[in-house]
């Protein structure tokens, strides 16, 4: 197979990236208007001009030296081609005992057929799959586990089925081991190729999937964790320091998460269906509140979707608001994607509504990171047609083809906004770039917006997958330039910043870098009068035409009638040529002659009004080009105009301020109205008028030194969210480069690399149809390098790594926030809000609380549960909600609640992973354990283990109707069941009774989680009830353990010397909160002391541990508490050691 893009012509045709453009242009100073020509300038003026020239030369020399150090001429070093691993041997295993098992060989067959149909196999660089070696697998997995999997090659069907049944959602085949090794090795082969610059990016089309596999555990169809192994392999073999892993499979990749949750060298981002823990694998570790531990805090990012039917807009919003800002700060050197396609519409496992075009967009956004070093590894996806289309769409994008148009406009739904708001708040302390990333709304405003969204959002219904079309182009990037435009010049001031040399220097640099030869050169033409009159008045056009025949003095007088304008006899012809060149490029893009393009033109245009020249501008080239595009198509084509010139495009704004078909976005120096063109036209309050209200967006910078971080923050938080919601069909960029580093008028610090990234990010819009039209920019070196960087992006080259980003300036953040606040009423995509009342946002929160030394006295007296508070079966929507006073991290009071469980909530439902991992108690009441803030009810053995808010499969939900008060007659009565957690009567009047004898435990920090659950909270599982007559109100939890787990085989016989509950931690010597490993019987302290038991598990792989505090048992691999008959003996011995008496028998 051949590599795509091996020669320049092929790259132009196939390597399509989305175009974006930087735009900057300069205005003259106050002295320009009305200047009088002097035949013999005086000495003062000569000295002034000399100083200006010397200063400009010094600045330019410094910039050139800096740019040379950046080594932007990387043409010879750019890697090309997309690698593909696809091996038929990966189909050599299937499920013996279930022909309808979703993870089947037909998945790869369907993908191959689609890739052949679209001609993609021949465009990729084919790589032979290889087997991963044991040493490579051991980067993540234990040797004992690998050896066990290796023995499956020699097992018969009965033995395979028996072993498979000890895991969750897996099957085994004699070829499973070899295929899993081959799948992992395939990803490693691509890692080698990408990091050796053999290819630019790649995709491994493999099975079985891998992201659920843990150190010593098969899980969810997965044996070996391909992506996790690849990350460690890249770090070990290629000395890569920072790896970004993105997991967009509809299930959370908890295997990857657990492997790196304490490692700051790997940033893990997962976006998945969660539904408050009801969706597989039902782990609290998959909620937004789990963000990593120790040095890895902030490096685990979970974006939980809490409802089905999530669409492209929701996924894109998560990338824009969360992933991309953090990734730009993290600066990864390699991006690995656990690319499951089961979130596509029609997938039986996901119930989501994403489209192949949406996954193309996500792929494109990731291609701007790590210098384009991106590898996708196939995970899930079980609708064969949708899977094949999803893989195809992502592969098209990797090859450089433009992203298809999204099928509909839209913004993230309210549920998505809530999830994003929570994760942003959780991450803000760890990432500088997220400072002030969410704004607090007044509750009334929130309710008003929610009502609007409820009206706008219809009920989601599944629809057929959209068929993407991939355009066949003659060339990729068009280039329009004509040296005749240099004849426009200032007859009176040779040092005027808008000099003819501007476009010549840009073209020379494009030719030096070989970029011009990679473009399709299009001839410029003058604009026709009809085109000019679409934006300008007849009288004004004729007035400029008359200047062709004026004498020098008349020209000077005419120029003085406008603001910052000079006119010469060639001005009218050059202005028509500049505008016509932009129109020619529009024609080429809309006809499919080219995908995108750049117009190297002058004079600039965005200040020109309908009837007046202004700020070096005569005809508004971008505005005329927009109207020309609509005229060609014969309809109100949706057009996005992005103006990144350092000066506000007053002319463009006025021409479209009442037109909703054109979205105008300008980022510019404003300086509170004192920067050219002065006045309040560029203020954030200017939003358009009439039908165009909301379609004018101004981001006013109120000072100098605005740089890459500020522009990228504006892109992520404001520009792109609005742009994706608008869903343009054409993007025009007023590409002035006077915000570039070194520009004498702009005073800003945007780098060429920054402009390349801004361009790349815009290229995902409008099917890749984007045109950059030169506006300002007055440092010749700056504009040449900046336009070259943008051209690289348009041609499909990956944006270069950015210099280390500083924190966005406070003033810039204030400007962005101000604009967001103004426009959130018009654009729902800006409503990622921070709400003080978390009841509206999420059922989870990050909380750290102190445990009280004694149980609430009310519990000792006994309380009766109100009849209304029940766990109601047969529903799917979680009604548990956390009130504002309950969610505050500063609260530490004890709160109790009353619960009656229906029969379906008995221990029989807690099988395998149908339950959620939750904390045990740290206090005991008689033989029963009570946690503050969590309550655990068990048999007389003094342990309780697991909490569920809803049965994952049964759909039970918590009905939370708090009683007004409780009386002294209210009691809690226990109905214990031998060998299980307490089984409760379904009768509403039956209650639980707690013994009044309480035992104190040392005070400790508690984050609402168990010893090994990794810091997850359980607020989404709580019964958040308050009782009117209780002074100390807090939160009450009911905990139900797993009744079985596949790792009970790891429990070894009790040592002959027995157990000593008073034994100190082997590592640190503490006597507080110790646990004993049930495999080696070594004693270590809990996570809330020095986390020595957590470390012991990571090094040994031993899964089960017993608490010396409450005698509960935790399984690290299941991430859950376990209560099983096999644990009776060790608990009995521990109870004897702790209390000096036999454990009471259960009934």
From TrEMBL:
UniProt biased composition (Low complexity): 880-891
Chain ranges passing through the membrane: none
Pathway the protein acts in: Protein modification; protein ubiquitination
Residue span(s) of domain UBP-type: 1043-1141
Main location class: other
Biological process according to GO: actin filament organization; aggrephagy; aggresome assembly; axonal transport of mitochondrion; cellular response to hydrogen peroxide; cellular response to misfolded protein; cilium disassembly; collateral sprouting
Region entry Disordered, spans: 1-46, 873-968
A molecular function GO annotation: histone deacetylase activity
Cofactor: Zn(2+)
Keywords, in A-Z order: Actin-binding, Autophagy, Cell projection, Chromatin regulator, Coiled coil, Cytoplasm, Cytoskeleton, Hydrolase, Metal-binding, Methylation, Nucleus, Phosphoprotein, Repeat, Repressor, Transcription, Transcription regulation, Transferase, Ubl conjugation, Ubl conjugation pathway, Zinc, Zinc-finger
Catalytic reactions of this protein: N(6)-acetyl-L-lysyl-[alpha-tubulin] + H2O = L-lysyl-[alpha-tubulin] + acetate; N(6)-acetyl-L-lysyl-[protein] + H2O = L-lysyl-[protein] + acetate
UniProt keyword annotation of Ribonucleoprotein present: no
Gene Ontology CC terms: aggresome; axon cytoplasm; caveola; cell leading edge; centrosome; ciliary basal body; cytoplasmic ubiquitin ligase complex; cytosol
Coiled-coil ranges from the UniProt annotation: 436-463
PROSITE patterns in the cross-refs: ZF_UBP
Cell location: Cell projection, Axon; Cell projection, Dendrite; Cytoplasm, Cytoskeleton, Cilium basal body; Cytoplasm, Cytoskeleton, Microtubule organizing center, Centrosome
Gene3D superfamilies membership: Histone deacetylase domain (3.40.800.20), Zinc/RING finger domain, C3HC4 (zinc finger) (3.30.40.10)
Family statement drawn from the similarity comment of this UniProt entry: Belongs to the histone deacetylase family. HD type 2 subfamily.
Xref: PANTHER family: HISTONE DEACETYLASE 6 (PTHR10625:SF21), HISTONE DEACETYLASE HDAC1-RELATED (PTHR10625)
Protein's recorded name: Protein deacetylase HDAC6
